[in-house]
Structures are given as structure tokens and as C-alpha cells.
Design goal:
By secondary structure, this protein is an alpha/beta fold. It has eleven helices and 16 strands.
Length: about 450
Amino acid sequence: MKPLLAAVAAFLFLLPTAHAREAEREGTVIDGTTNTALAGAIVTVGDKAVLTDAQGRYEVAGGSEPLKVRLTGYRRETIAAGDADQTRQTIKLTPLVPKALYLTVYGIGATFLLDPALDVIEHSKLNALVIDLKGDRGLIPYPSALPLAGKIGAQKLRTIPDLKALVSGLKAKNLYLIARIVTFKDDLLATAHPEWAIHGPGGGLWKDREGLAWIDPFRKAAWDYPIGVAEEAAAAGFDEIQFDYIRFPDARGIVFSEASTETSRVGAITGFLREARRRLVPYNVFLAMDSFGYVCWNENDTGIGQRVEDLATVVDVISPMLYPSGFQFGIPGYRNPVQNPYEIVYKSLEECKRRTANLPARYRPWLQAFTDYAFGGKIFGAEEIGKQIKAARDAGTDGWMLWNPRNVYTTNDIKPDPPADAKAKAADVKATDAKPTDVKAPATR
């Protein structure tokens, strides 16, 4: 009997249990340059994600699905199921500080705009591109599988014949790709679905200064459409999803489906971003959002649902629009912003960082690469752009992005970063305890 029991025990020992068949995978995520452990890296398997601990360690369920890893400030990594021993391994992430140009729905498809932009990227040592995949007027420039896109007329302009081919070609140039998705400003969707739109006091569709209607951020039924665009961008290979116009309009006398209070507005905006984050988990993409510049300073939601402490809990990257021309009231100590582009950018970023010091989100600002429209028409050339870039760098941000709505960029205006020893000292900016109180940004981007 004893030999039989021993044989059965041995047989049972050799049988693959459920746990053995799918042994847990564990390992460490480290900086590929310094070999230091990386805490807070996101490790994803399927639709489940975990964070690495203070020693960079992770533990995830076993299985045959790829292991995907990301951390702001680094390139994403995917470890295929057949690559090495996934049950225990060290994953190295490559540091990355995105330095980007922006191209509209039209710019990405026009060689007379795209080619010069790529030339600037190459010669000025940039490494990233922001591309409109849902533009300011609701247009989606690639063949989308979303039925609603065709029904509402969002597909009437095709400047990207093949999205995956575009991504593949740009990735061959080693570019970090950001999909910009205009969210609640959508005249096409609001016109087709007025039940989802913001209304005026008389009951008709409310329209902004450009004559465009907006979606009511409280209407959760409307969230699926822009998040669907984000999923298509992620599936095509974009590294980051950036939601713009992820806010309530800065206007009075408009009617929403719910009572508009600071609490309800902040809840709607963070709720949308949480839902987007949940649906984007399997793609291992970074999640970003654009904010008004004064959101860095205002302790309330600026009347638009953007409160930086709340935003920093739901996205990887916050991108405040720190165009000096947009700071019509200036900031403490600097009342003519276009004459002080370094101070506007640096001090705004430092204020944001102070308020979210214990939260995981990082900052990557939008910088001004267009002629001033508010303080006398100052041209923003190499000197002004350079000062803003230096300010972003001195503030320790996760890179920067240049905004020019005409998509006109030249190497005369955009220079390579200077050597490290030429960086400006942050201490050159005089500190002040004064703050503007509840300053409203202009109703522009």
C-alpha cells in the first residue's frame, strides 16, 4: 500500500495545478541608464495593472499574455510572452523627456507642413509629435470604425489614409507619439445629439465665441465617443492619449443637465478621466489632459471643473497651457507676461508642483510658439521660445510641447537644448508669496 500511496503522491505532485500552470510573474523595474529601482511603474497584464513598490518590485498573475510596463519619464516596454523568463526578470526602462511639436488635422496630411516639422524635429533634436485625432471642429482624420463618426460627419475630411501606417512610419523615426483628442467641444456631435449638448437659457444649443456647440460633460452617454477615439489611437500604437477641452465652458448663463457646482464639475471631469483610464488599461498608454494656465494658481476649479489636486490623481501627465499671451492678468510680480516668458512658465509650474507634491502626476507644459495676441503683438521667436523651454527644463518637468495653430515651425526659431552647464538657475527667479485670487482664464484654448 505504501508504494501505491507514494506513487499517487508523486503523480499528484507532478500534476500542474492551476497555480503552477499560471505561475505568478515577478521581477524588478529599473532605470536602464543608472540601474536604480523604479517605484510606481505601472505593470500591466491583460486588463489588470499593478504598481512597483519602493524597491521597483512587482508581482502579477501568470499566463501567456505580454507583460507591459510604463512610467512617466521613460519609454514604454512590452515583453512578449515568449521573451526570456517572465516568471522572474528585471525590466529596464529607457529615460525619455518628450520635446514635441503639434500638428492639426490638416497639418498631419499636408506635406508642406509635415515635412518642415519633421525637419525641425531632426535638426533641433526634438523627439515627439502631438497629432490631432479629433480636432477642434470634431473632425476625425483617419478611417474610424466608430459608427457615430460617420453618422455625424466627422469623417468628411481624411488626411490620414492609414493610421497604423502613419504610426509605423513615425515610430521608425523614433518619435514619441501623442494623440490629441478634443473632448467636450464638439459641434458635430452636439448638433447630431442635442440631448447631450449644453443649452442656452432659451432652450437652444449654446454656442461659444467661434459659433461651436459643446457636449455637456455631465452627460455620461456622450463619454463613449471620445474614449472610443482614444482606444483606436492606442490600438494603432500611440504612446500617449491627451484629452483637450476636457472642461466646462468658461461662460455664464448656460444650462446643463445637472446643477453646476464646483463639486459637481470636478466630479464630472475626473469621472470622465477615470473611465478613460479604465478602458485604456490593456493598451499601456500614458493618459494626459490639458488645463488652463491659471489652473496652476487658482485654488478653486476656475469655474471649468479643473482643480489641479484632483486632476493629479487620475492622469499620468497634466499639460497646463502656459502661453504668456493667455495670462491677461499676469502673475504676482509680473504683470506683462510677454515680457517675462521664463517667469510665467517657471513660476506657474512650481506652483502646480507645490500643490501636488505628494501625488503621482507629472507636468509637461504647452509653450507659446505663435505671435502674441493680447499685449501688443510681440513675435515669439528663438529668444522667447528658448526662455520658455529653459523654464520648463529648470522646473524639472516631463518635457514640453510647442503650440502653433498654423503648424509653421523653423529651425531659426526652435534650437537644440543648450548643454547642461548652460542651464539657467532656478534661483534667478525671485520668490513671492503673493497669489492671484480666482483668476479666470480667457475662453480660448
